[in-house]
Amino acid sequence: MKNKYLLLLIVGLVALSNTSCESRLDIPQKGVLDYSFYYQTDEHAEAASNALYIELKGTYYNYTMLKNALSDDVWAGGGGRNDNAELEGCNEFSFGSDQSFIRGVWESYYSLIYKANVILGHIEPDTDVKKRAHAEAKFFRAFAYFDLISMWGEVPLVDHELTPDEYQMPKASKEELWALVEQDLNDAINSGYLAEKQDAYDNSVWRVTKQVAQTMLGKALLWQNKYSEAAKVFNEVRNSGKYKLYEGEYQNILTYIAEGNSESMLESNRILDLNNPWDEFSFYEVMNHWRMDNLAASSAQFYDYKETGWGFMVPQKKLYDAFVAEEGVDGYRLNHTMKTYEQMNELGVKLQKGKSIINEGVFLWKRRFSSSEAPITFWCSYNNYRWMRYAEVLLLAAEANFMAGNQSEADAALNEVRSRARLPFKPATLEAIKLEKRLELCSEYTRYQDIIRWGDAEALLKNQGATTPLLINKSSSQNEPDNVVVEYVQYNTDPSRYGFKPKHYLLPIPATEMRLNPNMVQNEGW
Question: pLDDT tens for residues 171-229?
């Protein structure tokens, strides 16, 4: 009997204990916010919008290196063969579907799309701040899809937060994808909530502006051969008076000296904070700067440039030759864009004896990396990331107007750029516009997508990777005069394993995506 009552007592105490514990644990979890609490205020909307800009900034390295490497503007470069095999693979078109830069860019675009969809799905646009958040989210979603379509073709269309049973989405048609891009950009433009500058010299606006969204809409229309519609949009940007070509020294246009200038359409801000310099850690400037460990500075001027650079993304000689053919060897824009080895030597830098670098005797000048922009360490520059400038708008407008039959508008847009480059008037033709865009925007990540849509890529890139240029100082003794020459080395012997092929008009769907998504179909040839 005692055992029976003891058992009942224990059961009762356990039940009471459980009830007490459940009651005490039924409290809000601290430090964690779910959708029922978050995205409710202007502050939440502002933070969510800012996260889009942070995500964009984080994509810059892969975005720029991939697009430049795939073009005919540059050699992958570096100190020697296999210095960066991934970039060499992009530059020589020997990559496969597991290429890390391609995967990184693909993933960053869908991450940007996800963040935009969170805003659109969870923020009620009932205040001005929240309405601006919606407008910006639609811009960024369209921005990501523009590149996905233009580089990969048909991809999954994700216009809302996915539930677990939707994760394995098939591709959508290009028509559906372009329709989303156009709708998003029109919604953003017509919302009235995107920022606008007071005038061309207003450098206080860092958020996406109405004119930037219009430019992206014009590009989407141009890529679809909707020339008249594209021309109308680009002309509205031109006539807005919100942007104009930079009036300072052209050589500074991409340096920290010209941040936020009248030509800059979209920049990612980077901050000089001597207490937290590592907040701006980046490989970008170091990768693109001259190969300083193999160079020797013989003048005080060159001690002002960062002592460390890895010499990637170096100009091709045929790009230099295209400048010379149009501008002459003394061309203003040419000499503010790049320098030959002989010019660098005159300025006080030379290749060390017995050293070599992957280079064709041409150095990019408009992206030089000075000590002033990285006072603590070469890893941490505060020069803003540049995404778009007004010269691109003018050259897009020239093309759209020419193709739409608006010759006078095409002439005006083209020659506004040429005038700044100190070149004479030239009637707008498609070939003239193509050349001008190549020279004006060289190494600014527009070339690859242009030659893809123009259908020129195969002819221009079919032999890229056949040989690799080496700039060599054959003098090994300090007593010998320098003997610097360019030699071409054949590393690739099988033509089927390098150079642009028809399949390269679309990038491969990343292998990880193919493994995870049984509904995904790989692009043809991959």
Answer: 999 999 999 999 999 999 999 999 999 999 999 999 999 999 999 999 999 999 999 99
**For tokens 């707008």, what's the residue?**
428
Q: Which two tokens stand for residue 525?
A: 């040839």
Burial level of 501, CB count in 10 A (0-12/13-18/19+)?
Answer: middle
Entry pTM: 0.91
- Note whether 287 and 87 are within 8 A (CB): no
Q: Give the span between the Cα atoms of 363 and 412, in whole angstroms.
A: 32
Contact between residue 134 and residue 120 where contact means Cβ atoms under 8 Å apart: yes
What are the DSSP calls for 252-270, one per residue?
A: GTTSGGGTT-TTEEEEE--
Residues sharing a CB contact under 8 Å with residue 75, sequence separation 6 or more, in sequence order: 91, 313, 314, 315, 316, 358, 359, 360, 468, 469
Report the distance separating Cα 86 and Cα 60, nearest Å.
Answer: 17
Return phi, psi of residue 267, to 5°: -130, 150
CA atoms within 13 A on the CB side of 446: 22
CA distance 236 to 255: 28
